[in-house]
Amino acid sequence: MRQVTILDRSEMRTALRRQLEMDPARTAVILVDAHRGHLDPEVATMPVAPEDARRVREALTRLVRGARELGVMVVHVVMTHRRIPYPGAESMTNPFWRAVEAARQSLTPDRPSTISGHNLEGSPQAEILPELGPESGDYVIRSKKRLSAFYGTDLEILLRIHRIETVILAGINTNTCVLCTAFDAFNRDLRVVVAEDAVASMYGEDLHVFGLENVARCLGWVLPVEEILDHLRARATIAAAPALME
Fold first, then answer.
1. Residue 29 lies inside a defined structural domain of this protein
2. Which of 24, 101, 135, 196 is 20 to 30 A distant from 13 in Cα terms?
3. How many Å apart are CA 13 and CA 208, to the nearest integer?
C-alpha cells in the first residue's frame, strides 16, 4: 500500500472557526457509545487503549458538566444487542461482523475483543459510564444496533422536537460510530461539531486521525472540549446581555 501524506488544511479550519455559531438552546451533546463496553478496561468487550480511555473519560466529564451548566441538552446513545437463538446475538446478523468472529480476528489491534459478546442487553458493558450520568434532564437511547446513532433509533425526532440545530458529538469510535453519526447529522442539515479530545478509536490511531480529518475537511468542526464550551458560553453571555440591561 502506498504511503499517503495527510494534507495540511489548517488554514481552512482556522477560517471556518470564525464561522461557527452555536446557540445553547438549539444545541445537543450526543454521547455516542460512551459506555463501559469501550471505556472501562476492567469489563470492556471492545476496548480502546487504556490511555485513550482515561483521556476520553476525563474530556467527556468536562463536556457534559459544562453543557448542563449552559442548559445544553445531553443525549446518551448506547449500542445494545439482544440475545437471540441464532446466531446468538443481534450483532451476528451482520455478515462482516460474523466473518470477523468466524475468522477469530479482533477489531482492536493488540487487544482481545468480541463482537458476539459485546454490549449484550443487561450486561455491565452496556452501562453508561457512572461519571456521565444519566442525570435528570438527560435523554437515553438504547436502540442503537449499528454504526449510526440515527439508524433505527428515535434520535432524529428527539432533536426535531427540541428544535436542535447543532449536534456536538463525542464518544467511540472516531472512525465508525462517531463518523457515521456525523454523516447522518450532516445529511439532515444539522451543524456538526466533534469534540476532538473526547473521541477515540479502538481500531487504531491511524483510523482515529482519519475520522477527525474526514469530519474537519468534509462535514463540520473538530474542536477541543474547552473551545466548544467557550463558544457556547460566549453565545450564552450575549443572549443574557439584554435581560441584564433591563
1. no
2. 24
3. 18
Reading the chain (246 residues) residue by residue, the pLDDT tens digits are 788 899 999 999 999 999 999 999 999 999 999 999 999 999 999 999 999 999 999 999 999 999 999 999 999 999 999 999 999 999 999 999 999 999 999 999 989 999 999 999 999 999 999 999 999 999 999 999 999 999 999 999 999 999 999 999 999 999 999 999 999 999 999 999 999 999 999 999 999 999 999 999 999 999 999 999 999 999 988 877 665 555
**Which residue type does 68 have?**
R
d(C-alpha 186, C-alpha 215), whole Å: 10
Q: Which domain holds residue 143?
A: 34-240
Amino acid at residue number 214:
N
Under DSSP, the state recorded for 92 is G
C-alpha cell at 121: 442487553
Beta partners for residue 141, in sequence order: 77
Can you give the C-alpha Rg of the chain in angstroms? 18
What is residue 179's three-state secondary structure? helix
CATH, residue 168: 3.40.50.850
* Domain count along the chain: 1
Residues 6+ apart with CB under 8 A from 125: 35, 36, 37, 40, 43, 44, 45, 118, 119
What gap in Å lies between CA 168 and CA 67, rounded to an integer? 10
